[in-house]
Design a protein that fits this description.
disordered N terminus, Beta-Lactamase, binds calcium ion, TIM Barrel, 43% helix, binds ligand C2E, 25 strands, eight-stranded mixed β-barrel
């Protein structure tokens, strides 16, 4: 670099420009840039249009693919760090300046960083003419368009990136007690209902309420949108943070009241004790505070959630499973498999194969088996249960077809999720699969749990009635657990009721549940409903439950759910 300067003869006669009597030289400007650029985030530059020489602050060399602070042959050299699609624009602009067609330069275009990634910049410049009035220099500044602002002018708060310094200064870090992230509930609705200008007013109001509520050595920063980060540097406890949250809520309630309840809203908060996580970096703390606020909102809003590592690990686990299953679905259901568990007859002709329940299994790429209790809710929440449900349907139909070569009346049971009923064309899917395999509708039993059907909406009703009309059989699953009640039998008029193992275990232990179970079975039989007892594990259980006269039995006593090959090997011979 130095060599190149010494080769240049800046500041010689002829390189002067006239600025109200003062002569400035290229070299003066270069020195100025060197002096003040360390104090700024932008990149000042000077270009000598006559000598075709260019100088830009050293920081630009660090940030962009600029070969050196000083270079000649400006247009050609720019090609190294300007996006290829913008070179024409830049060349034209420079030509216009050199020809004196323009006195000001102000364009937004793309530069490239060292990894050749695009960075949008705005370049401004002013033309300085020499004594003869011909263009001599262009002096100006480049700034990054997308660079994050350090403050939020609406709320009047510094951005949370400015909080970082607190975490990086050892004496202050030691005193940080908690970080509290506060967010406005349903802020999007406020913006939509009242417009963004009013939304800005609320944001400013909430920021003021927070500032008012802060104690000494507590500061607030603007995080994103309607979220604020408060950091306590008194070593305060989470309980004290909770008190602060309550104070902020009171201040906001007062603010709402003062505005005649025009917009009524609440706030949620997520708090994290920094004393417990003192080795964590600023970035990690901010990440965990985001999780904490999400949890407060997820748990119903208008509340404070205190960060728990256990919850966070569960969240990470869920996210991991979601990533795995999503990949599997996109790779033709790799890792998913359907198992089958036999349903056997009870009563006089007990122990005969009646059908099988199709149960989904999943194994990750790394060979970890995940329980359906864990992955089914994730499939449901993400909507992936829709494609996976089709996969299950296909596998179940295949097995049913094969088994009917030996047992013509064999039935296969499929568990159906609420999401499949509400958000997919489940009727069409079932109909198509029956046609594809040439199966009779009564070969399929659809199992549903009442828990998911509490909302007996017209759509659910329609799907229900259509399933029954086609002739598909319906089983009310998990009967006897928390959610089920007798009204669901009349609501859904199923063909089977499956009594949950939890209920049967109680019935075997307590006389009250025993009598209740007996009556439920009698009641079901009186309306021609068939009863399946689930989860029968031992011969003793089977004997004691047989007295109740169930129609079918399912459980480990007969068989654990097994792979389709195993099921075929065991039951494929009549
Ligand atoms: P579920 O429908 O109640 O299925 C019966 C569960 O009880 C199965 O657990 C089965 O392995 C287990 N089980 C069977 N016999 C016994 C026994 O004698 N003792 C005990 N302790 N347990 C027994 P699994 O396979 O882990 O499935 C759990 C739940 O996952 C199912 O409960 C069902 O709600 C759901 N699920 C499984 N596959 C699917 C599917 O393809 N679609 C949907 N939507 N849900 C599914
Ligand atoms: Ca089931
Ligand atoms: Ca069940």
């Amino acid at each position: 670099m130095k060599d190149r300067y010494t080769k240049c003869t800046f500041g010689n006669s002829g390189k002067c420009a006239d600025m109200s009597d003062k002569k400035i030289t290229f070299d003066d400007c270069r020195k100025m840039i060197q002096m003040y650029s360390p104090c700024m985030d932008d990149y000042p530059y000077i270009m000598d249009l006559k000598q075709d020489e260019y100088y830009i602050s050293e920081k630009a060399v660090e940030r962009f693919n600029v070969p050196s602070a000083f270079f000649t042959n400006a247009v050609k050299t720019h090609e190294q760090f300007v996006h290829k699609d913008d070179i024409q624009l830049l060349t034209q602009e420079l030509e216009d300046m050199i020809e004196g067609k323009k006195n000001e330069h102000n364009i937004t275009y793309r530069w490239l960083d060292h990894d050749k990634h695009t960075v949008w910049i705005n370049c401004r410049g002013t033309l300085i003419k020499d004594e003869d009035g011909s263009p001599q220099f262009m002096i100006g500044c480049v700034n990054e368009v997308g660079m994050a602002a350090k403050a939020d002018n609406n709320s009047g708060l510094l951005q949370s990136s400015e909080m970082k310094a607190l975490f990086e200064t050892a004496e202050i870090r030691d005193k940080i007690g908690f970080v509290l992230r506060v967010g406005i509930d349903g802020f999007k609705d406020i913006n939509e209902k009242f417009g963004t200008k009013y939304g800005d007013f609320i944001l400013k109001g909430v920021a003021n309420c927070i500032v008012e509520s802060l104690g000494e050595n507590q500061s607030v920063y603007h995080a994103v949108g309607d979220e604020y980060l408060i950091v306590d540097c008194n070593g305060s406890s989470v309980e004290e943070g909770h008190e602060l949250y309550r104070n902020i809520r009171r201040a906001i309630d007062f603010f709402i009241e003062n505005n005649d309840y025009e917009a009524v809203y609440t706030i949620s908060g997520g708090i994290l004790s920094c004393k417990h996580y003192e080795t964590m970096s600023y970035e990690e703390i901010v990440k965990l505070s985001t999780f904490a606020l999400q949890q407060a909102k997820y748990r119903g809003k208008n509340q404070l959630y205190i960060f728990s590592y256990e919850d966070y690990e569960k969240f990470l686990r869920k996210r991991y499973i979601l990533t795995c299953v999503r990949k599997s679905v996109s790779e033709d259901f790799r890792g998913f498999e359907t198992y089958f568990q036999p349903l056997m007859t009870a009563g006089d002709e007990h122990g005969k194969l009646y059908g099988a329940e199709c149960l989904l299994r999943y194994e990750t790429e790394k060979g970890e088996r995940i329980s359906p209790i864990d992955f089914i809710p994730i499939l449901e929440e993400s909507g992936l249960i829709i494609p996976v449900g089709r996969f299950v349907l296909e596998q179940a139909a295949q097995m049913c077809k094969k088994m009917q070569t030996v047992y013509p009346d064999f039935k296969v049971s499929i568990n159906l999720s609420y999401v499949q009923i509400l958000k997919s064309a489940i009727l069409k899917d079932i109909f198509n699969i029956l046609a594809k395999y040439g199966l009779k509708p009564e070969s399929f039993v659809v199992e549903i749990t009442e828990s998911g059907y509490l909302e007996n909406t017209p759509l659910v009703r329609r799907v229900w009635d259509s399933l029954k009309k086609i002739g598909i059989l319906i089983a009310l699953d998990d009967f006897g657990t928390g959610y089920s009640n007798l009204s669901s039998i009349s609501n859904f008029s199923p063909d089977y009721v499956k009594l949950d193992r939890g209920f049967t275990v109680k019935a075997l232990k307590n006389s009250y549940e025993n009598t209740l179970m007996k009556h439920i079975i009698d009641l079901a039989h009186s309306v021609k409903l068939k009863i399946v007892i689930e989860g029968v594990e031992t011969v003793e259980e089977l004997d004691r439950l047989s007295v109740m006269e169930p129609d079918y039995v399912q459980g480990y006593y007969y068989s654990k759910p097994c792979s389709s090959d195993e099921f075929w090997d065991r039951y494929g011979v009549a």
